[in-house]
Design brief:
heterodimer, A: mainly alpha, MetI-like fold, 73% helix, B: alpha+beta, OB fold (Dihydrolipoamide Acetyltransferase, E2P), 2 domains, six-stranded mixed β-sheet, 9 helices, 18 strands, globular, Sorbitol ABC transporter membrane protein /mannitol ABC transporter membrane protein (chain A), MetI-like (chain A)
């Protein structure tokens, strides 16, 4: 039992790290908020004074904003769908007792160790490139004209790349959930006359619901900020076909050199991310009880 | 209907023979208990009957039909697992209804059967709870309820009481026995606890290393154990075994005498010894006596006034002596 004295001592002891972490978060956020109301264009000599809400209206009413929002949602939902469904299937597969189980599992996990721009470049040059890529070769072998994945379907291609990167994470968490399932429950269901597919939907899937929630929540946080893969593959193009919210902010800040509008975009993104988080917690957070 | 017959059933895991070829008959309506020390293959045998394990060779007949290759669900048997294996995300109602739902029974009939099972098992007030909100005994009853609604031809119990505390275990033992008397359905019950076996069974099957050591009614096993293993396993406290000269006097390699068949006296008797521990249970007293023939356990009345360090004399009741030959088998 903690006494009053030991509790206040504990608070005192952890306060430096708490204060440091708070500053770490609060100072950049404060600066972004500050810049979002400033007139601050690096290409313009008139770099002083308050801009009011004009930075926000510039960002939100810019022609790219709506598309970027939709693209972000497509990217996040597409990757979530792919990783969860494929993750469950792969977890079911590698949960089977097979020869070479250890190496297979390590191979399945390995994409997670590769940094995002590297894997994006590997996909871009090794698979998607219409003239040199393996997929192009495959199309040629089948007698079809090579398909320019990043040109014709840029967002779908990026979803593929990101899903490939995040699949190991989903698989790993879903696999551990699968392994924690009591075998007697499955046997009981078998005795109760449930065929394999029904056993999966009535017993296995409900058991995994908490793990699926964890996967969805954690991945959403990271997927909202996907940037490197877009930069090295399509640079948001062609046109704005694969421009997402983070990439739009990058464009405002480092291509248009409009720090104020970019900062306003950042604040908009923070607010949107929080709205998404609230909806997610409301919708599936009850699984975490 | 629930006659189960095993013919030369064998189970091997790789090179390890868990159950050497074995024959067994379970009659309709019988309460059969498989009992043996842990690792003796009793659970494996039950799982073979349930169809959760494949037999290596031999045949299993249920109600006269060959069920060896039949899927578990098609055998018409219901099983209660040691961990209860309830579905944690479903309410008690849905748990009990699950086998009916899988069988495609109409909703109205499902409700009727679930309500009936809940009434029989005193679960009516808990139907909308989840298994996690129930006590051990209630979970056990839900597991039994899930088995009852299928109206199986036989129930299989795999050590169902081992997760309950002692008081609850005695209760559930009674409830299961009553259930058997009401339903009159065949039950096969696996346990390592010989008390459960003695109190519940119509017929006990004593197993050791997959081999059936003896099949018989509880009292048959108690009075006429076929060999030393059964003699030592059935009965509590354990039978005393004596070898050497004392046994040779009776023309046997080993003689056995149950603790309750030894009379104790402070002044005269056959074997002299010193009391090391006396356990006073109120109704009985268990005395551990160090004699020249080894440590003996004696069971006597609750009011016996003997304590640690006392010298006592033990006399076996001559007609209650069990004699075993050099192979450990009973001599008539």
């Amino acid at each position: 039992m903690a006494t009053q004295a030991s509790r206040s001592a504990a608070r005192l002891m952890i306060s430096p790290s708490v204060i440091l972490l708070f500053l770490w978060m609060a100072v950049p956020l404060g600066m972004v908020i500050y810049y979002s109301f400033r007139r601050y264009r690096l290409l313009n000599p008139d770099r002083a004074g308050w801009a009011g809400w004009s930075n926000y209206s510039n960002f939100v009413f810019s022609p790219d904003f709506g598309g970027a929002l939709v693209n972000t949602l497509i990217l996040v939902l597409g990757v979530l769908l792919l990783t969860v469904i494929l993750g469950i299937l792969i977890a079911l597969l590698i949960d089977q007792p097979i020869w070479g189980q250890g190496p297979v599992r390590i191979l399945v996990i390995s994409p997670f160790f590769i940094m995002p721009p590297v894997s994006a470049l590997v996909w871009k040059n090794m698979f998607f490139n219409p003239s040199n890529g393996l997929f192009g070769e495959l199309f040629k072998y089948l007698g079809m004209p090579p398909y320019d994945f990043l040109g014709q379907a840029p967002l779908a291609s990026i979803v593929t790349i990101v899903a490939w990167e995040w699949l190991p994470f989903a698989t790993l968490i879903l696999l551990t959930a699968l392994q924690s399932l009591d075998g007697e429950q499955l046997e009981a269901a078998e005795m109760d006359g449930a065929p394999p597919l029904k056993r999966f939907f009535y017993i296995v899937l409900p058991h995994m619901s908490r793990a699926i929630t964890v996967v969805v929540l954690i991945q959403t946080i990271f997927l909202l900020g996907i940037f490197g893969e877009i930069l090295v593959t399509t640079s948001g193009g062609p046109g704005t076909a694969s421009t997402t919210l983070p990439f739009l902010i990058f464009k405002k800040a480092l291509l248009d050199f409009d720090v104020g509008t970019a900062a306003a975009g950042g604040i908009v993104a923070v607010i949107l991310a929080n709205i998404v988080a609230i909806f997610l917690m409301k919708a599936i957070g009850k699984n975490l009880d | 209907m629930g006659k189960i017959s095993l013919q030369k059933v064998e189970k091997r895991f790789g090179d390890v023979s868990v159950i050497p070829p074995l024959d067994l008959e379970v009659e309709d309506g019988e309460f059969v208990v498989f009992v043996g020390p842990s690792g003796c293959g009793k659970s494996t045998l039950l799982r073979l009957i349930a169809g959760l394990e494949d037999t290596t060779s031999g045949k299993i007949f249920i109600d006269g039909a060959d069920a060896t290759q039949l899927a578990p669900a098609k055998r018409g048997l219901a099983m209660v697992f040691q961990s209860y294996a309830l579905y944690p995300h479903m309410t008690v109602r849905k748990n009990i209804a699950f086998p009916l739902k899988m069988a495609g029974v109409p909703q109205a009939e499902i409700e009727e059967k679930v309500d009936y099972a809940a009434r029989v098992l005193n679960l009516s007030n808990y139907l909308d709870r989840r298994p996690g909100q129930l006590s051990g005994g209630q979970r056990q009853r839900v597991a039994i309820g899930r088995a009852i609604v299928r109206s199986p031809s036989a129930f299989l119990f795999d050590e169902p009481l081992s997760n309950l505390d002692a008081a609850l275990r005695v209760n559930m033992r009674l409830e299961i026995t009553e259930l058997h008397q009401n339903l009159k359905t065949t039950m096969i019950y696996v346990t390592h606890d010989q008390v459960e076996a003695m109190t519940m069974a119509d017929k006990i099957v004593v197993l050791q290393a997959g081999v059936v050591e003896q099949v018989g009614s509880p009292l048959e096993l108690y009075h006429r154990p076929r060999n030393i293993f059964v003699a030592g396993f059935i009965g509590s406290p354990k039978m005393n075994f004596i070898e050497g000269a004392e046994a040779a006097k009776q023309d046997a390699k080993t003689i056995g005498i149950r603790p309750e068949h030894v009379t104790i006296s402070k002044d005269s008797g056959a074997w002299k010894g010193t009391v090391t521990v006396s356990e006073h249970l109120g109704s009985d007293t268990f005395l551990h006596v160090e004699t020249d023939l080894g440590l003996m356990t004696v069971r006597s009345g609750g009011d016996v006034d003997v304590h640690h360090g006392d010298t006592v004399w033990l006399t076996p009741e001559a007609d209650k002596l069990h004699r075993f030959d050099d192979k450990g088998l009973r001599i008539a």
